[in-house]
Design goal:
- There is one protein chain.
- By secondary structure, this protein is of the alpha+beta class.
- It has helices spanning 7-10, 31-35, 68-71, 95-102, 109-112, 114-136, 146-149, 183-197, 208-217; strands at 37-40, 46-52, 76-82, 87-94, 155-156, 159-160, 171-172, 203-206, 248-253, 256-260, 269-272, 277-281, 294-300, 306-315, 322-329, 331-335, 342-344.
- The strands form five sheets. A six-stranded mixed sheet has the order 7-17-11-8-10-9, covered by helices on one side. Strands 4-15-14-13 form a four-stranded antiparallel sheet.
């Protein structure tokens, strides 16, 4: 004789209804990628012209003639170029998985439409990988990132930094020995950039740990109105809430917003002038030589926030009961004025 029916007797016979939302556990926020201006690329390389100082001006002897050999110096025009990088993210779905998911009405849309959901996942992963390479990429199929572009020595965009002083990066390092972040370090770098480029940086980007160190510098500083009407260089926006959409920390330095990025290189603080940084990419074709269907798709982070970079989204050849897809992009970071930026290295994160 059956006893009292309890939950365990019927659980397996009842359906499970899921929340209409999905909750993504990963962090694929792409802060620097979102900040950069995006431009279409052309040709077999990412190329631009730079001009270095070589013109001369001085007093002269009254009535003296101008001789081509000794008196006509002009600024040097030099071509800069970097090969394109190439990145992709692929995914595939079996016919059975797609059919079962599409006929599961109690599941969220992200799961029932597997192709659309996987597309968003691949797009956010690709954006996150590219965001990381904007810092540490070294070429050979990769972006040449800021760590190489802003270095004090070496070669960038096929131009030797040792040959042109204005092409050498502004770097404050400590021989690989970690040291505390100080306002004096930041003041020294900002002053160096202004001296070399005649401009101040427009943003500061660093790791979350170093951003926390920066905040600690001014925990006891109060807001001060200076005679000129400017605000204290420590932070001019006390009480502002950090913007989780962009990575803005809620702090500024001399009016320059400070951003935190999970992908920034450990120990580094970057002072950047966004006017002279662009992320260029070759516009994707609408179909390849075999006629495979393709379209343009804009990358986004894991929360669906668009980052402004278009990729080539193509359906690969179908060879069985499955569908396969690929997101492909050919980007390169263009640093048009190296001396307009700066890198403070060897900052302790602990």
């Amino acid at each position: 004789m059956a006893g009292l029916e309890v939950l365990s007797d019927v659980t397996s016979a009842l359906s499970t209804e899921f929340d209409e939302r999905v909750f993504k556990q990963m962090n694929r926020k792409s802060v620097l990628l979102s900040l950069l201006t995006k431009k279409p690329g052309k040709g077999n390389a990412c190329a631009w012209d730079v001009v270095f100082s070589d013109a001369s001006a001085d007093t002269y002897t009254e009535g003296a003639d101008v001789t081509t050999a000794t008196d006509t110096d002009q600024d040097l025009k030099i071509p800069a170029s970097i090969s394109w990088g190439w990145y992709r993210s692929n995914f595939g779905v079996s016919g059975l998985a797609k059919a079962v998911a599409a006929n599961s009405p109690l599941s969220p849309d992200y799961v029932t439409d597997l192709i659309a959901g996987d597309l968003l996942g691949s797009a956010s992963k690709l954006a996150s990988v590219i965001n990381g390479k904007l810092y540490d990429g070294t070429g050979a199929g990769h972006i040449i990132g800021l760590d190489s572009a802003l270095a004090a020595t070496g070669t960038y965009a096929n131009i030797a930094k040792g040959s042109y002083a204005e092409w050498a990066g502004n770097v404050l390092a400590n021989g690989g020995i970690s040291r505390n972040l100080t306002k004096d370090l930041m003041d020294q770098m900002e002053s160096t950039i202004y001296t070399d480029a005649g401009e101040s940086p427009s943003v500061i980007v660093t790791t979350p740990a170093i951003c926390r160190k920066y905040e600690q510098l001014f925990d006891s500083v109060t807001r001060m109105a200076l005679p000129s009407g400017d605000m204290s260089p420590a932070r001019a926006n006390l009480g502002m809430v950090p913007d989780n959409m962009t990575g803005f920390s809620g702090y500024t330095y001399k009016g320059i917003p400070v951003f935190r990025d999970k992908d920034a290189t450990s120990g580094h603080m970057y002072m950047l002038n966004l006017e002279y940084l662009e992320l260029c990419s070759l516009p994707p074709p609408m179909a390849d030589d075999t006629g495979v269907a393709s379209r343009r798709e804009e990358l986004s982070d894991e929360q669906g926030r668009r980052v402004g970079l278009e990729v080539h989204y193509q359906t690969l050849a179908k060879t069985g009961d499955s569908d396969r897809f690929s997101l492909v992009v050919y980007p390169q970071l263009k640093n048009m004025k190296v001396c307009a930026h700066g890198l403070i290295d060897d900052i302790s994160e602990s």
